[in-house]
Structure formats: C-alpha cells, structure tokens
Amino acid sequence: MNLYGRDLITTQEWSRNELETTLDLAARMKRDRFADNFTNILQNKTFFMFFYNPSVRTRQSFECAATELGGHAQFLEPKSMRLKTATSAGETVEDAAKVMSRYAAGLGIRILEDQVSAYGEGDNLLREYAHWSDIPIVSMAHDKYHPCQGLADVMGWSEWYGRGPGKGVDPVVLQGKKLLVAWGHGALARSWCSVQEAMLIGSRLGMDVTLAYPEGYDLDPAVVEWTKQNCAENNREFGITHDPREGYHGAHVVYSRHWMSPQAYQNGEFLKKQEIEKALHYPDWICDGEKMKLSDNGIFTHPMPIDRGHEVTDEVASGSRSCIYDVAENRLHVQKAIMALTMAGR
Amino acid sequence: MNLYGRDLITTQEWSRNELETTLDLAARMKRDRFADNFTNILQNKTFFMFFYNPSVRTRQSFECAATELGGHAQFLEPKSMRLKTATSAGETVEDAAKVMSRYAAGLGIRILEDQVSAYGEGDNLLREYAHWSDIPIVSMAHDKYHPCQGLADVMGWSEWYGRGPGKGVDPVVLQGKKLLVAWGHGALARSWCSVQEAMLIGSRLGMDVTLAYPEGYDLDPAVVEWTKQNCAENNREFGITHDPREGYHGAHVVYSRHWMSPQAYQNGEFLKKQEIEKALHYPDWICDGEKMKLSDNGIFTHPMPIDRGHEVTDEVASGSRSCIYDVAENRLHVQKAIMALTMAGR
Amino acid sequence: MNLYGRDLITTQEWSRNELETTLDLAARMKRDRFADNFTNILQNKTFFMFFYNPSVRTRQSFECAATELGGHAQFLEPKSMRLKTATSAGETVEDAAKVMSRYAAGLGIRILEDQVSAYGEGDNLLREYAHWSDIPIVSMAHDKYHPCQGLADVMGWSEWYGRGPGKGVDPVVLQGKKLLVAWGHGALARSWCSVQEAMLIGSRLGMDVTLAYPEGYDLDPAVVEWTKQNCAENNREFGITHDPREGYHGAHVVYSRHWMSPQAYQNGEFLKKQEIEKALHYPDWICDGEKMKLSDNGIFTHPMPIDRGHEVTDEVASGSRSCIYDVAENRLHVQKAIMALTMAGR
Question: Is pLDDT above 90 for A83?
Fold first, then answer.
C-alpha cells in the first residue's frame, strides 16, 4: 500500500486498510511523539493551509503537525487571493494549483457552509484543486466532510474501549459498538461535515449507527445512504429516530452536536440568522446526565468547540466518560500520520 | 531551582534568585546566540502566541525566540476564536486551555487596556488560562504587567552600568542606582503595564524609585504599594512627585513614557479619545536634554514604540546615553531564556 | 565578489557578474533542492516579510524559501504598526529598522501603487529602510521595481532557450533574443514594477527590447532611459510601438501584461476605478495565438496572476510555449539564492 500523493477529501474514499494504517501510524506517533524518525519526515518542506473559514483548533493542530514533522505550515487566507468565480475576475484554480505544486508538499483547504452559496460547492472546490494539483489535497473541514476529525474520533473511541489513551489503537474494538449521532440545540448554524464524517467512518469500522434529530434536520441523503451501505456490509444496524431520548438506549458512543437544517441555503444565501432562531426551539435536544444513563455506560464525544448548556451539559462534557480532550489531541496525531503517508518523500 | 512549568505573569511573583538565573541565561544566549546547545532547546516544539492586541515588536521577538530555540511560534488572533464571555456564547477557557496543553509547550497572551472593560480583566484572563493549562502561560504584555519588558529593561540597564552590552549581566550594578519613571505627554492612551513592571523589578533589584506624573495620573495603588515594600526591603528610597523636573535630580535611569489616567474606563468602556485629549494638556512633561542635565549622567530608557517629540526629544532618544535599542534587543534574549527555563524538556 | 549585507531594490543596481552569480546559485538550488549544504544556510535565522500589500505567490515563495534554507520567515502586516508619516504620529523608520536589525537576518518589503500617494514613494520607503537597517532590504515588489520577479523571468527564459527547466541556467542564450513587453487590457490597474524590472534585466543580459502599448500608457521615463542605455551598451536595439501587433514580429519572449497609466495618481489619490474603466477600451491589446504566429516561435511569459481572456488567451497561456509555471517556480529558487548570498553568515 502506497499513499504517497493521495488526496484525502473523505475517509469514505480510502480503503479500510488505508485507514487502519493511518490510525496505526498516528498511535505510534502519539506514543513516541518526538522520536528522530518522525521529526525529519517533512524536514524543510512546506504545507499550505488555505483557510476560507477561520479556525483555531484546526490551524493549531495542522501547524503543530508540520512543525513536529520538521516542516512548516503556512497560514494563508484565500480571501486576499481573488480566485476566479462565476461572477468575478481572478486567478483560475488551474494557475493557483499548478504554481503551488511547485512550492509545497501538500495543500490543506478549509471551506465551510457560510463561504459557499450552495451545499457541495466547497467539496467541488477541493476536487477542482485535486484535479489540477500535483500535490495531495487534504480537507481541513469543508461543507461535506471532515476526514481528519473522523479519524481523530475513531482513534479516541478506540483508545477508550481498548487499551486507553496513548496506549495504541486497535479499531476492532469498535466492531459492534453503537454510535449515537444526536442533534443538539443552540444559537448556532453548524456544518454537517463533522457528523457526516463520523457516521461514515464509524459505520466503516463496524459500528451500529443511530441518527437522532428533530423533524426537518435531515443530513445529506447520499451520506446517509453510504452509511446504511457501510452498516449493511458489516452486518450492523442503521436507524433514524426523531425522539430526543430513544437513541440513547444501549449507545456506547454519544456524539451530540448541533447542525444546520437543509433549508439553510436560499437563492444562494446562507441564512444564518434564521437557522439560529429555529435551532433554539428544541431545548429537549441536549445531552445530559439523565439521558446518558440510558446508554451502555457510553462515552461522550464532540469535535469541539462545544456549546455547553445547549449541545451538552457541563456535567457530561466535563464528566468522567467524556473523551473530548483525547479526541482533540488526536487531531494532531492523525494529521501528522496523514501528512507523513501522503506527502513525505518528495 | 526548577522553573519548568512555571507561569510568568509578573516578575514580582518570581524570586530574586529566579530572576537572576533568567537574566544570566539571557546574557549567555546573547553572547553565544546560535550555539548548538541553545538551538535545540525547543526543537520541533510549538509556542502559541495569543494576540488580543496587535503588536509588532512583541510578535517579532517572540517568534524569533522560538525560531532560534529550534521551535516555532504560531501567531494566533483570538478574536476569531469566540471565547465565552459574560455576554456572548463561545468556547470556555477551560476547553481552549485543555486542548492547547495537548499541542504546545507554552502559551503567550497579549491583552491590553482597550480590549477589556475594566482594568485587571486582562490579568484575570491570564490567571484563568494559567488555572486550566498544563503548560506555562507567559504574559506578552497585559493590562497590569509586562514581565518580559521588565526583564529586558533591567538587563539593558545592567549592561550600561556594568560591562557593556553583550558582555554579560550583573544586576548588582543597579543596587543603589536611582530609577525615575516619568509620565510623558502625547496623543496616546498607553497601558500601565510597562511602567508598572519596571517599578517592580527595578525596586526588587535594589534601585531607588521615583515616580513623576501630573496630578490625576496615579498608577495601580497595589503596584505602588508593592514597589514601596520592595524598596523598603532593600533599604532604598521611594518617592512620588508631581513636578516635571524634580525627579530628574540624581537619576541614573530615566524612563519617560506616557500612560493613561485611572479615569480611562467608564461603564465598561475604554475612553481612548478623552484620554488622548487630556494627555496633550501637559507639554512640559517631555524628557529633553535640559532635564537630563539634572540627572547623574543618566541613561534614557523606553520600551518602544516611542512617541518622539512628546514623550522625549529626538536629541535624547537618539543620543549617546540612550539604551533603547539594547533594551529592545534584550526582549529577544530574555524571552528565549524564559522559554528555555519554563518550557524545555516536555 | 561578496554580496553579504547587500540590499536588492532593483537588479539595475547589481553588477552583471552579481546577477549571474545569483542565477547560477539559483539553478544549483533548483537542481539539488534539499541538499544538506543548502538546508542549513539560514538555520534558526529569521527573515521579516513586510506586506503593505497582500500577496499570495510572493508570500508563499518567500516563506518557502526561508523554510528550505532552514530558517523562518515572519509574515508581518505593517498596517498594525502605525509608522510615522507626514500626517500621522507613529514609530519612525529609524526606530523600527534599528530594532529589526537586532532580531533578523533580512527584511523584505512589498508596497505597491495603491498604498502610496505618488509613484516612487514605495521606492523611497525601501531606501529609507535600507539607510537605517544593518540587515539587507529586499524588494518583494514595490511601485518601481520587482527584482526577484526579474531574476525569475530571465532564469525561466534562459532555461527555455538553453538546456531546459531544471538543467541549469546560462544567461548568454538570451543575448540577441528579442523581448516584447506588451500592454494587456482588462479590468485592472496593475503596477509598473514587474514590466519595468523585466525591461531592465532583459536589456542588461543583451536582449533587444520592444515596448508596445496604447498611447497614454507610458512607463517611468527614467526606467525607459536606463533600458535604452543597457541596450546601447550591448549593441542591441530598443524600440517603442503603439500598434498591438507590430512588436510581435521576430519576438522570442512575449511578455503581455496590463499596467496602469501615468494618470493613475491625482492629488495623492490612486484612481483605481478610473484606471479600470480606461483599460477596458482596448480589446485589441490581448496576446493571442494569431499574434504569437508573428513571433519567432516565441515563448509566452507572465509574472502571474494572469487575467486570462484579457491579457492573454487561454490558448496561449496554457499552450506548449508558455513558460509561466517555470518562471513562477523560479521565484522560489532565485529568492533562496538572494537570501543565501546576502543574509547568510550573520
């Protein structure tokens, strides 16, 4: 297996073997974080980070990752780049991508729902960059997917159900475990990318998946369909409920997070205000201690930042079964592994 | 003495022995700037810089410091981070700090008077980060203190009264010298942090301290009280004058700089405009050649940027007794020493 | 020949021997990009990048260059620095430059036509920094010149007329070749710096130079005069035409790019809107396949970003005789060579 040069737009497009190799390398990099054989992997090499949307954690973890591999990540904001769009002049993706391929070992792109005029445009942009680039394109979260978060999620869950954080990862421990992906209320209009990636990679690794959300908060039908297929291929169960409690029964991993509704875009506009108002009408949709008692001593997971008091109570988020900081730490390790596997050797 | 893991919020909270160890290491790092034993200290490690307020010199010197120690400093602007405050939703300091502790070797924070709604809030924020973080918090200037500037100041003054810049630092030479901290006029509303830190560390190291400012420009009473106590412990003199000339008599170090009045905050607002107007009414409060003649062949010091023509004349700022560039350079060396002592070894 | 400490504001101020040494080192760095003897040149050293104007390519290539030499480039935006100007208070260039000289190995400055109130002010600023700095000042494009682009241009052209990209550079192959610098239309108001530098360095290296532009689009008369002199010293021809086709006859290198008119500044304002409107009135001024047929199998060159469809057709820009990506890549290599020659050894 050779991942050199491969793009990572969603984990669904990597084989299970490739995902496991990445997780295994990430675990070794976590255990032996500054070992000599890791700190020279991107020595003197550059990784470009394109932030159409700002971010703290993603920027911190990617820039750390490059530094720990001996290289350097450049923080770039494409708004000052004036790329050509349907309505405005500017440099074509072809020109931008071809030049960047001469300079760097890889390119990360972050573009979320409020920077595009329709769901899927961010994904299209990543694929256009991937088409023209000679270097790997890595999603740093876009409107559809968030593969690095997905890998960090399953790495954290595997640690909690296996040997414990920092002791190595054996994804087989997730086989047959139940993942509940539950909508959370709050004054937010959050992307689908993190939850969709979690559904995909959880089901790939043999988990039962239950989606729970109020009527009107459907996710991308294609992603739901893929998740169903993944479950079917592993002989696992997939279900959807619109009850805020039901899905908790027997859950091993509880992922409670807000997401926007499919009505968020109208005539090319992202209706943030309207989404925020709507999302406050469902105060029942919070992960709390009472609901967690219904689970099978489940762990609480979240990609952060958390909207405490809306998506989840403090009691749960800071409780003894919360894996949030371990998952957040794992962003660093999986990203180092991805960069090492796809970008080293140039 | 082991400083590993220690926060640095003000020099007043470090022992005299700890401060001298830091100054000594800084002097060695200045003399032998790129020696092998220094350039690997933070190899592949990350230092986060949180700039609530922009800055050029502080950013330049901290980012250089990390680079020269073999690591990397990330330039982060928390305004895009939406931290939870009394009035707005957002990520808690607990969550932010706990995750950053997984990624980095240390965290620097800069937050000045115009980014808070009352004096002391910046200091509280640093202490909240220090509470939740597993990594050292270093002030890169906040509303109360500026420890790195204070260390750079006394390093520069010690060089000038000792063996000369770059020849090593023996803080004992400052014992019994007179520090004049004089208010300067100008279209500004500057923080108290630099002058307060200078008073504290100057008095710690055995200097006489005289404060000179127009009526109505009192500094933090608690800091003044600490300074008095420091002087008393060293059997040195402390005084306050409201005459623009009197304090110069016999001064060895003249620190002329503008600072805002205690009336700068009203109802949670920082009244910059009002402060600026008020500050222009005292044209006598400028450090000039005539006043410097009253001193004991004193040196002129300032943390920069200087408001030439208001705080000080060109004649003095660019004169043969100005130590401003040496002090500015020392920011780099003391910050390297601080990072080495508190962050290396993780 | 010792270039250590030298500023680079325009190639016209470096000797032909110095330019050839730089090109030769750039070619060796391109061929053997990550060789040990190159990756330690700026080890642990800092290069400051001052971006008065944003840029993607220039920032990417300079930051990569520092990384590949083992150092680090700091991305700085001086708008937050409040330097003293005729009308506003702030830090003097003297103070800023003297402190930065203590921290860094070199300083790059980018300041284009829309950040100054009259043509030439950007150049003056660079020279003021050069006056006060102890470290080399490198233009990263300013209102008059763009020396790094000029060097990348001739490196690319030499590769195409010599041994091929990446096979080394022998500038002698440009001797006697004809360079056409042609104005291009479009909704733009672009700087003179790139085309002026190309005229200067092309003529230095023995090329015939023809300028082609509509009446009213004269460039800096002093630069035109220098170009004429360079041509005369090499016994080469210099000409100006206002016909959009004529200059193509016999051209070996076709440089088609928009530039603003000399009327762009009025009363200290940069009239971008007016320039853009005017520039759209000349649709004939586009480099297309038909015009290229008039050339001597010429190559197409452009400093990018390209305004495709206005300055040049897609057919030509993406055609088999387009050297744009090689020239863009060469920015990296010539900048590494410049930094190595002027900044290493401190």
Answer: no
Q: Do B103 and A332 touch (CB under 8 A)?
A: yes
Asked if C99 lies within 8 A of B304 by C-beta distance, the reply is yes
CA distance A199 to B36: 49
pLDDT for residue B340 is more than 60: yes
In tens, the pLDDT along B158-202 reads 999 999 998 989 999 999 999 999 999 998 899 999 999 999 999
Which residues are paired to B108 by β-bridges? B49, B138
Q: What is the spatial distance between Cα B24 and Cα B22, in angstroms, rounded to a whole number?
A: 5
Question: For chain A, what percent of residues have pLDDT higher than 90?
Answer: 88
CA distances from A103 to B2, C62, C331 (A): 43, 10, 10
Q: Which fold has domain C11-145+330-343?
A: Rossmann fold (3.40.50)
Asked if the B11-145+329-343 domain carries CATH number 3.40.50.2300, the reply is: no
ipTM of the modeled complex: 0.96
Average of per-residue pLDDT values in chain A: 95
- The pLDDT confidence band at residue C83, using thresholds 50, 70 and 90, is low
**Nearest CB to A89; choose among C68, C307, C332:** C307
B22 vs B3: CA distance, rounded Å: 10
User: Measured over all CA atoms, what is the biggest interatomic distance in chain A, rounded to whole angstroms?
Assistant: 56
Listing DSSP states for B135-198 in one string gives: S-EEEEEESS--HHHHHHHHHHHHHHHTT-TTS---GGGGTTPEEEEEE--SS----SHHHHHH
Which residues of chain A form beta strands (DSSP E)?
46-51, 72-76, 106-111, 137-142, 178-183, 208-212, 238-241, 253-257, 265-266, 269-270, 299-301
pLDDT on residue C124: 96
| pLDDT, mean over chain C | 95
Which CATH entry fits the domain spanning A162-323: 3.30.1490.190, 3.30.530.20, 1.10.599.10, 3.40.50.1370? Answer: 3.40.50.1370
Under an 8 A CB cutoff, do B102 and A325 touch? yes
Touching subunits of B (3+ CB pairs, under 8 Å) are A, C
Q: What is the pLDDT of residue B86?
A: 52
pLDDT at residue A86 is higher than 90: no
B272 Cβ contact partners less than 8 Å away, ≥ 6 residues apart: B114, B189, B264
Mean pLDDT over C108-133 rounds to 95
How many CB pairs (< 8 A) connect A and C?
A: 69
Residue of B nearest to C50 (CA): B56
User: For B73-89, what is each residue's pLDDT tens digit?
Assistant: 999 988 766 666 555 66
Show the tokens assigned to C210: 């023809």
C71, closest residue in chain B (CA to CA):
B67
Token pair listed for C232: 């005369």
Gyration radius of chain C's alpha carbons = 19
Chains sharing 3 or more CB pairs under 8 A with chain A: B, C
- Search chain A and give the residue with CA nearest B345: A34
**According to the model, what pLDDT value does residue C143 have?**
96
With a cut of 70, say whether residue A338 has pLDDT above it: yes
**Most C-contacting residue of B38, B46, B60 (CB-CB within 10 A), to test interface:** B60
- Judge whether residue C79 has pLDDT over 80: no
Sign of the torsion formed by the C-alpha atoms of A58, A64, A66 and A71: positive
Model confidence over A103-119: pLDDT tens digits? Answer: 999 999 999 988 899 99
Q: Are A84 and A90 in contact (CB under 8 A)?
A: yes
What is the CATH code of the structural domain delimited by C149-328?
3.40.50.1370
Domain B149-328 in the same topology as domain B11-145+329-343? yes
CB C176 within 8 A of CB C206: yes
Question: What are the phi and psi torsion angles at B52 (to 5°)?
Answer: -70, -35
Q: Domain locations in chain B?
A: 11-145+329-343, 149-328
pLDDT, position A314 = 97
Give pLDDT, residue B1: 74
CB-CB: which of B55, B68, B328 is closest to C44?
Answer: B68
